[in-house]
Design a protein that fits this description.
Layout (H helix, E strand, L loop, with lengths): L2 H22 L2 E6 L9 E5 H4 L1 H19 L2 H27 L1 H8 L1 H4 L9 E3 L2 H22 L7 H16 L2 H9 L17
Antiparallel strand pairs: 1-2, 1-3
Length: 200
């Protein structure tokens, strides 16, 4: 797997985690408190209030993306697992609000309603939980890509390239030339000041 593929995966992970964090700050639920409190209107409930775990898991996904870009093979595997779990957790939190918006809204506005239960007619769900669920799913997918494709990503390219070049210089020398240098009293492994490589 190429370095470009690794970069694209990290970028997708960063975008998914960042956008998930942003979506958690948007309004997920609109609660009509008019029937419960005199003079009260609609109250907006953000994703941070309806599903606080989603934003925390988005931060885990962002940290995982940073780890994928910097860590070696073992570190990438651990980071990939964390990203998958963060994505699945964010997906579960978002879907929970979509499936049961009333409990989430009741908990979020409990201080305003003095703990009174809300009805389904008082709670309206916006599109943001759906967006968050999709982004959390994408985050989980990027984690799977890290686990599957990350085994083929190279690390330490500079050191590997330097080692390969040194090996190539060593193997390209002819044994006869080394023997000739030894017979002259020269060390064939010493570096030539002019070329930066072995003499001869």
């Amino acid at each position: 797997m190429s370095r470009l593929s690794r970069g694209r995966t990290v970028l997708a992970c960063l975008l998914a985690g960042g956008l998930l964090l942003l979506s958690a700050g948007r309004t997920w639920l609109e609660v009509d408190l008019g029937g419960m409190l005199a003079g009260a209107g609609a109250s907006s409930v953000s994703g941070n209030d309806a599903a606080p775990l989603v934003s925390a898991l988005a931060l885990v996904g962002l940290a995982g993306a940073a780890a994928v870009s910097l860590a070696g093979r073992v570190g990438r595997t651990i980071a990939g697992v964390l990203v998958v779990l963060a994505g699945l957790g964010g997906l579960a939190g978002s879907v929970a609000v979509l499936v049961s918006p009333v409990p989430a809204a009741t908990s979020a506005v409990a201080e305003q309603t003095m703990g009174a239960a809300l009805t389904a007619q008082q709670v309206a769900v916006t599109a943001w939980p759906v967006v968050a669920a999709a982004l959390a799913g994408l985050l989980a997918v990027t984690g799977v890509v890290v686990l599957v494709a990350g085994r083929g990503w190279e690390s330490g390219h500079r050191f590997e390239s330097a080692g390969a070049a040194s090996a190539e210089r060593t193997t390209s020398r002819e044994p006869v030339a080394d023997w000739d240098a030894l017979s002259r009293g020269d060390d064939p492994t010493a570096e030539d000041p002019a070329t930066g490589g072995p003499d001869g």
